[in-house]
Amino acid sequence: MMGHFDLTGRVAVVTGGNGGIGLGMARGLVKAGAAVAVAGRNAEKSARAVRELEALGGRAIALEADLLSEAECRAMVAAAVERLGRLDILVNNAGIALRKPPQDYTLEEWHRVVDSNLTSAFVCAHAAYPHMVRAGGGKIISIGSILSIFGAPFAVAYAASKGGLVQMTKALATAWAKDNIQVNAILPGWIDTDLTVSARAQVPGLNENVLKRTPAGRWGRTEDFEAVTVFLAGPGSAFVTGTAIPVDGGYSVQV
User: Fold this and answer.
1) What are phi and psi of 98, to 5 degrees?
2) Which of 38, 95, 107, 254 has its CA 20 to 30 A from that of 85?
3) 3-state DSSP assignment of residue 36
4) pLDDT digit string, tens, across residues 91-119
5) Distance between CA 140 and CA 129 in Å, rounded?
6) Which domains does the chain have, with CATH numbers?
């Protein structure tokens, strides 16, 4: 049974893997035996993440990339393959949020959110595809959001991008199943990260509302993403594709 969760010999790229949920996912991958490339714009932060992952006994490298650039997305994937020898797992985690009423958005702000969260994920998947075909299959895991299910007045571009990511996940799953590539999404609920610290400051009553609405009675933690990532990245999910799994302590099923 443990073989279903063994990632020994596998190579993963985790965008935005130098902090928050992405680093939590990278920890899980390393603990299961995968070599991990963490990609981000902050080289110092990525170096700290690599040291943490190496302290867990894993192999990790840092890649610097601005995922708003198609060329840098493709170069990042190529660099991971060159340095680690192959590519089996892609985690599309990088993204941004902009909290303001929709009528106050500029078109440039809209494009920045959608391109950061959705377009970059497509480009990375597009770049990863031939390497996964060469390896005989692969796993693509994209980080959506419970705001792909719910509406929020302060997050129209973010919600649109995450909803699009879920639909892209389904479409890629159907397109690439013949290549033994499984494509799934994870929908985080309210997770305690640097990003949500600012959300709690900007959205009055958010902390109290989250605790009241979440059956588990707490905010999520980055370690809550380790095991589900290993499942979706490993052999045990070979017949699981095109799905979106909420990791939200029951928030999305509470009436």
Assistant:
1) -135, 115
2) 95
3) strand
4) 999 999 888 999 999 999 999 999 999 99
5) 9
6) 2-247 (3.40.50.720)
Closest by CA to 124, choosing from 83, 170, 66, is: 66
Helical H segments across the chain, by residue range: 20-31, 43-55, 70-84, 107-114, 120-135, 156-176, 194-202, 206-213, 226-233
Positions marked catalytic = 158
Among residues 131, 144, 124, the alpha carbon closest in space to that of 181 is found at 131
Closest by CA to 216, choosing from 196, 195, 192, is: 192
Cβ–Cβ < 8 Å for 146, 252: yes
Residue 219 pairs in a beta bridge with: none
Query: Contact at 8 Å (CB) between 60 and 111?
Result: no
Residue located via tokens 């095991």: 227
Q: Is the pTM of this model over 0.70?
A: yes
Contact 81, 134 (CB under 8 A): no
Nearest by Cα to 76 from 90, 97, 58, 57? 90
CB 46 within 8 A of CB 62: yes
Residues 243, 247: Cα–Cα separation, whole Å: 13
CA distance 206 to 196: 10
Range in 72-81, 191-200, 237-246 the model is least confident about = 191-200
What one-character-per-residue DSSP string does 1-25 give? -GGGG--TT-EEEEETTTSHHHHHH
Sign of CA dihedral 153, 158, 163, 166: negative
Tokens of 244: 């979106």
